[in-house]
Structures are given as structure tokens and as C-alpha cells.
Amino acid sequence: MECLQYSIILIVMSDKNINIRELTKAEDQIMQVLWQLKKAFVKDVIEKLPSPKPAYNTVSTIIRILEKKGFVSFKAYGKTHEYFPIINKDEYSNYYLNRFMGRYFKGSFQDLVSFFAKENNMNITEMEEMIKRIEKDLNKSD
To answer: Mind listing the GO biological process terms from this record (predicted)?
Structure first.
């Protein structure tokens, strides 16, 4: 029953994210930084990226693409822009998980969990702990 409730919550939440599009690897990397920092200038994003550091223009271009996709907005200070996410990490994670479930598990949360448990050799105790955590998370949202 808990899994069914969780699936319903995921589906309901996904309806509000219809306009979200999947991020490329580079876009995702930059969004991870923006979600972490909450707001940042291009140079701040570059500082947080792993080496080798991409060029300033590359990061700036990707951020402008993210802006066009509706993931980020900015506050202008003259010619300089401070960017901030307008789609939060949980919203995107929910969208991405639902797309993933749809592609690989016919939209079935139960099939996803079963596959994950089998592939990771989870035992009953670990499964029970996971169910308790899901119940706790569901109770928080009530």
C-alpha cells in the first residue's frame, strides 16, 4: 500500500512539471552547482566545476540555454548577471525519475524498487528500513 501511495504522489507531482525538459550532461552539471549555491555569477559556477574547468564563454552559453529552457533566471547588475534556479532540485528529480520509470519500468514504481533491490542484493531488513523511510517521508508531506 505504501508503494502505491508513493507512486500516486510522484504522478500527481509530475503533472505540474509538464514543461520541464531533460537536461544534457553539461546543463545538469551546472544546475547541480546552482542548486547548491542558490545564486551565482558565471565565475562562481566555474569555481565549483571539476577540472578541467570549461571556458567562461562555454559556461555562460549553457546558463543562457538553461534560462531559455526555464530552469534559471537572473538579476542584472549592469552588464553582469547573477543567476538563480527557478526550478528546484526536487522538482527536476521528480520529473527525471518519472521519465526514467516510464522508459525502463513501464511507469511502475514497484518494478523499479524490485529491480533495485535485486540488483543491489538487498535483504529483508534493508527493504524494511527503506519502507520505514518512505513512510516517514510520506508522513512529512501530509
So the answer is: negative regulation of DNA-templated transcription
